[in-house]
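From: lab user (bench 3)
To: helpdesk
Subject: output format question, protein + zinc ion

Hello, I'm new to running complex predictions and I'm not sure whether the block I got back is the full result or only part of it. Here's what I submitted:
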Amino acid sequence: MRTVGKLPRHRPLSRTQSSPLPQSPQALQQLVMQQQHQQFLEKQKQQQLQAVLADGYVSGPGVVYDTFMLKHQCMCGNTHVHPEHAGRIQSIWSRLQETGLLSKCERIRGRKATLDEIQTVHSEYHTLLYGTSPLNRQKLDSKKLLGPISQKMYAMLPCGGIGVDSDTVWNEMHSSSAVRMAVGCLVELAFKVAAGELKNGFAIIRPPGHHAEESTAMGFCFFNSVAITAKLLQQKLNVGKVLIVDWDIHHGNGTQQAFYNDPSVLYISLHRYDNGNFFPGSGAPEEVGGGPGVGYNVNVAWTGGVDPPIGDVEYLTAFRTVVMPIAHEFSPDVVLVSAGFDAVEGHLSPLGGYSVTARCFGHLTRQLMTLAGGRVVLALEGGHDLTAICDASEACVSALLSVELQPLDEAVLQQKPNINAVATLEKVIEIQSKHWSCVQRFAAGLGRSLREAQAGETEEAETVSAMALLSVGAEQAQAAAAREHSPR
Ligand code: Q9C
Ligand code: ZN
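Helpdesk reply: Thanks, we reran it on our side. This is the complete output you should expect:
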């Protein structure tokens, strides 16, 4: 008896032409199966290659999350006083797990952003102030630290904790890790999407970032994750044009500031403005960018309060007439979304007041996926109603997965945008048509329902093709006449 170990080893995948065919039927059968398997593998490889060539990626959406971000909590521990709490991202993570959506996505490992990465947007002082803890602060070059950093900046809060203000709390032990993790998670995810390793992405991160300016923490925000990511994509991956869409109900003053003079990053924000009476007060429609960046800052600054309320119809109309036409004309290489969900129903003034449905955000996501070859990365910003932010996250991840979405109600499609929204959009179009000629054609039909707009566009398309036919007919007639009159 020969032992298994001494059996001659097959070369399973190839035979030389001169080698004799096996004698026994069993051996022949085995060879046929080997060849079939080989063909199967080849075919599979071909198909994968085709997918890469066609779409530029193999896998689906990526999701990033890390428990380090949970530790940013006020010392007082009261989540009613501090609505931007750890439960927000825990709940979203659980929701994606429970619904089975998470298992359809790639899970990306996060990391803490480096101090250098953060300084692409923030000053050195600001970066050290919020990017270090007492423990790792000692390790840094002492010359870089401008005095006793921890003592002078913070305020004592009525709740007993410390922070920049009662929104923007600080935990000396844990917050620096959390805020750097939020940035690093988004950077990791966006780099994989931009490099074609992932189709698109959703970053479940906190604290939010879009209010953070070069040297100012405010509105729950310390480091501007989206702005830092846009800068790094350009500097490290040679990405050319980045579109940032910000649909958090608050204006992203920090993001606007970071790219105000920069024509390579188009910032489009939809926010409650009320003539500067809603936090943070910036984001007027006249703020269109500066210097070479003129025209690359677009503020859809809703004004007129909440009676009548702003909801799906108004957001969908803004996308139809302003956001998508400008975005297509800009033709970005990557789209980053400051995806706050505080415009979703369930958020009351002063932290909200609008009644956009969670479902609507899925539809907005799907529209953005028509840009940049689908390279869209959503980053959580604001929103504190747990049901609302979980529902909206679920809708957006469903869109990123390209699964069929819950359709919008027919009532939404038939409703006309409210009078204040029409006025807001008229103003934006008037201002931005100097920079984006594509928006001009929407000025006249702003009051239409989406159904009416659809019919109008079909009619327009039909008119265009009818005219094309007519002109072809006219050319043919002309050609025929020319033949008739030409001498033989
Ligand atoms: N007294 C985000 O949604 N509240 N931040 C200001 C003024 C600020 C919201 C209250 C709310 C900030 C990311
Ligand atoms: Zn917000």
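A quick orientation on your result: The longest strand covers residues 265-272. Let us know if anything else is unclear.
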